[in-house]
Write a sequence for this structure.
């Protein structure tokens, strides 16, 4: 039983990590139907920004919480700026183009950003400081759930809650939902569609930056390619949960994380990915739109 | 006007004469292939520097029979699918001898192409056993111990020195890590006094390894052997230590890199790893290090000594063979001793070096210290 609980928490942490990235995928898809492949790279840039900010700030002997929040702020602002810029230069000019064009543009952006960071920073793995404090109260349970696991779990829960409230009740959130439903109609009733889409990218990127900092601090190392694998897994999770749906992204991530963890624990980590992707295929056979996705018929 | 036409004629005749001069003393081209970009670049770049130093020395002394050595440096990013292109490209540029590749997987992919073209390949770091023992690649040599020798050393050390009774073996599913882990598994199973607690591959690049760490804990293992490279090793060690698991972690030369210590930080303390023996006391090794510091202003990186040895053995063979004719070069490599940082050595029939090159290290106060 104890082993089950341990695996359960490993799976939850993994799922929460995927969820932090998957939320951005799903938001962008929900609003413009584009799979933003550069999203994983935004996560990576967020982690790098946090690292640089933390390194500079640590010169001033700040206490750890201050260091954490200032680096987080830097990462969020910088990554949001990247998200906005990417949308502006790579996707907006292709707004009216066939669906494949922005997709290729997204893949290009992803490769560009990876190599840009590779050249501007380093190709090596570099250490990431432990920005998440170790809670003394958790010490006896370190074997089951560590401080960083708990912080990641709570942050993901909080972010999902805030995001849902934001989408549901704020003016921008309502405009986002309207744009997602019908872009032309939204524009006709006076919504600045371009600005709303830009806002979606900014919010998605900010979430990715939060994920970047938390995950890098948990793992302890980063390099310019971390966005790729994390992005693929998060994308899988978003599809699993029903791409376009925010609770779906979180649910899909948790299911993916738990499946991987239990597959490793009870079968073999050799087959971790086999189980994860078999599950994806199975779910898509029975629910083609994902667990919480809406099956919509294309209107002609 | 007259001046200009005289000038033109002179220039023209010079231009015509130039290719003739070049043809008279054509450079000897040496390919240097390996991971020069990507996350494993730290394993490949020191080899480029070693080759530059050795070639620079020989060129400064007038080259080989008046022919200068020319290095053609090609990146394979440690990826098999790129390595085949790298090999094809080097061959098309007229290369007859290659120092490289760095990673076993990439080397394995490139070797058939080199073999077809009669190109001699000396790797400073590809440890996959099959490369030499299979006998498939008579054109292949290496200046590093093979995986089975390494696995034997790791297992013996874990059983005898660490007194482990139940051993967990993990690997990264790659050619190198899995190859080594499979040998280790065989050796552990052969030994009646120890038990194989766990044998698993982990997915490289995953964000979290806590599930597999929990599994090690449950298996009751009292030592972990890991076959693979440092990025995954540092994540696994970190998560083990955070979960209060203090059992020894023994790994291979893919982990014996200072980057590992830099990344795993305090959690790296006490980790064991095998690696090439320390040659800083050997006069040739010392001179090579000094040359590196002088030329590049830094300490040499991973596999530098092996690469320096490869470059010395190769250039020695080129000098004695008087050129790049592959049979003559191969004969020198297999029969004549050459003085290297690892002592005088030549290659056996399979392409492995004669003489030991392996030692065990332990991380103590943030540095790898040889313990045997």
């Amino acid at each position: 039983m104890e082993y089950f609980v341990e695996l359960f928490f490993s799976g939850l942490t993994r799922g929460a990590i995927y969820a932090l990235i998957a939320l951005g995928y799903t938001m962008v898809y929900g609003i413009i139907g584009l799979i933003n492949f550069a999203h994983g790279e935004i996560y990576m840039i967020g982690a790098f920004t946090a690292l640089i900010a933390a390194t500079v700030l640590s010169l001033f002997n700040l206490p750890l919480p201050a260091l954490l929040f200032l680096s987080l702020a830097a990462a969020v602002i910088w990554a949001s700026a990247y998200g906005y810029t990417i949308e502006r230069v790579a996707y907006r000019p292709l707004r009216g183009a066939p669906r494949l064009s922005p997709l290729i543009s997204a893949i290009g952006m992803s490769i560009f950003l990876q190599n840009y960071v590779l050249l501007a920073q380093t190709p090596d793995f570099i250490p990431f400081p432990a920005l998440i404090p170790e809670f003394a109260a958790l010490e006896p349970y370190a074997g089951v759930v560590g401080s960083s696991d708990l912080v990641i779990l709570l942050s993901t829960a909080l972010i999902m809650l805030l995001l849902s409230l934001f989408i549901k009740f704020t003016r921008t959130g309502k405009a986002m939902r309207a744009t997602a439903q019908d872009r032309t109609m939204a524009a006709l009733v006076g919504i600045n569609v371009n600005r709303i889409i830009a806002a979606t990218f900014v919010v998605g990127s900010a979430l990715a930056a939060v994920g970047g900092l938390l995950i890098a601090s948990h793992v302890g190392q980063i390099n310019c390619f971390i966005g790729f694998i994390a992005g693929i897994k998060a994308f899988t999770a978003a599809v699993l949960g029903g791409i376009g749906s925010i609770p779906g992204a979180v649910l899909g991530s948790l299911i993916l994380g738990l499946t991987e963890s239990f597959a490793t624990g009870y079968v073999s980590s050799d087959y971790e990915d086999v189980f994860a992707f078999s599950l994806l295929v199975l779910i898509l056979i029975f629910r083609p739109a994902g667990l919480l996705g809406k099956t919509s018929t294309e209107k002609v | 006007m007259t001046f200009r036409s005289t000038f033109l004629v002179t220039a023209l005749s010079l231009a015509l004469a130039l290719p003739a001069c070049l043809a008279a003393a054509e450079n000897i081209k040496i390919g240097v292939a390996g991971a020069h970009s990507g996350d494993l670049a730290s394993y490949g770049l020191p080899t480029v520097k070693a080759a530059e130093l050795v070639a620079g020395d020989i060129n400064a002394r007038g080259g080989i029979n008046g022919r200068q050595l020319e290095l053609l440096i090609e990146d394979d990013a440690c990826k098999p699918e790129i390595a085949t292109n790298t090999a094809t490209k080097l061959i098309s540029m007229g290369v007859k001898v290659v120092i490289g590749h760095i990673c076993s997987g990439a080397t394995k992919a490139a070797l058939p192409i080199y073999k077809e073209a009669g190109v001699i390949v000396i790797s400073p770091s590809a440890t996959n056993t099959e490369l030499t023992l299979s006998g498939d690649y008579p054109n292949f040599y290496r200046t590093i111990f093979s995986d089975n020798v390494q696995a034997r050393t790791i297992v013996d050390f874990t059983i005898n020195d660490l007194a482990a009774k139940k051993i967990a073996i993990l690997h990264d599913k790659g050619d190198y890590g899995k190859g080594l882990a499979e040998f280790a598994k065989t050796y552990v199973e052969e030994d009646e006094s120890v038990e194989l607690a766990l044998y698993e591959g982990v997915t490289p690049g995953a964000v979290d390894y806590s599930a597999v760490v929990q599994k090690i804990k449950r298996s009751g293992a009292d030592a972990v052997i890991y076959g693979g490279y440092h990025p995954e090793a540092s994540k696994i060690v970190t998560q083990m230590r955070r979960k209060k698991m203090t059992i020894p972690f023994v790994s291979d030369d893919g982990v014996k890199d200072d980057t590992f210590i830099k990344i795993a930080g305090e959690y790296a303390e006490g980790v064991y790893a095998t690696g090439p023996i320390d040659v800083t006391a050997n006069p040739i090794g010392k001179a090579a290090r000094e040359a590196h510091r002088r030329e590049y202003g830094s300490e040499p990186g991973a596999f530098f000594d092996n690469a320096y040895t490869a470059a010395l053995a190769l250039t020695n063979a080129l000098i004695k063979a008087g050129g790049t004719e592959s049979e003559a070069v191969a004969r020198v490599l297999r029969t004549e001793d050459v003085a290297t940082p690892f002592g005088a050595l030549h290659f056996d029939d399979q392409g492995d070096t004669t003489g030991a090159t392996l030692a065990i290290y332990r991380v103590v106060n943030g540095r790898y210290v040889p313990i045997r």
